[in-house]
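Long-time lurker, first post. I've been practising inverse folding by hand and with some scripts of my own, and I keep getting stuck on stretches where the structure tokens seem ambiguous. Below is the full token string for one chain I'm working on. Before anyone asks, I'm not after the true native sequence, just a reasonable design that respects the backbone. If someone could post their per-position residues I'd love to compare against what I wrote down in my notebook.
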């Protein structure tokens, strides 16, 4: 778990971090190393992390109040925005994010106007996962999330809760 710290202005910022692996996965053991990472929006420093290691093969929660830099940190790790300074290394020291091994899911849902099945399968399709393997993984995930009854339903016809799953 990563918690934000108050930097004196009454707002928590992600400057120092405490991490606790919540759930061991084991499928992918890529660690992410962050050193001296700074991100500013204008004159405001929104992220200042001296040293942070995200353990591979684990789910890590990033928590904090609005404006603490949680989304900024995730966007930086996913290489969606540029950092002002610092280093992010993936796995054994690589500086290029292995996008085929990473997925970032935002809180707001952005679904294509296709079926739930097609929305779940899309990330596998763009990663060129063989069709039979992709279908099996979609089915497995749908069963785990209890989405099997609505797999062929159009995304726009789902409830907010169903869409977030």
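-- Answer (accepted) --
I ran through it position by position. Result:
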């Amino acid at each position: 778990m990563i918690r934000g710290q108050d930097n004196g202005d009454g707002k928590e910022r992600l400057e120092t971090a405490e991490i606790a692996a919540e759930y061991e996965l084991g499928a992918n053991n890529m660690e992410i190393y962050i050193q001296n990472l700074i991100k500013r929006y204008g004159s405001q420093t929104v992220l200042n992390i001296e040293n942070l290691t995200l353990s591979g093969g684990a789910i890590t929660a990033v928590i904090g109040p609005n404006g603490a830099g949680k989304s900024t940190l995730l966007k930086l790790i996913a290489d969606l925005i540029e950092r002002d300074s610092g280093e992010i290394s993936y796995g054994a020291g690589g500086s290029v994010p292995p996008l085929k091994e990473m997925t970032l899911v935002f809180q707001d849902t952005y679904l294509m106007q296709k079926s739930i099945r097609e929305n779940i399968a899309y990330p596998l399709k763009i990663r060129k996962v063989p069709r039979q393997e992709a279908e099996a993984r979609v089915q497995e995930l749908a069963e785990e999330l209890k989405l099997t009854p609505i797999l062929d339903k159009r995304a726009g016809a789902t409830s907010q809760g169903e869409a977030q799953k």
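A couple of notes from the structure itself: Confidence is low (pLDDT under 50) at residues 1-6, 14-27. The two ends are 22 Å apart (CA to CA). Happy to go over any region you disagree with.
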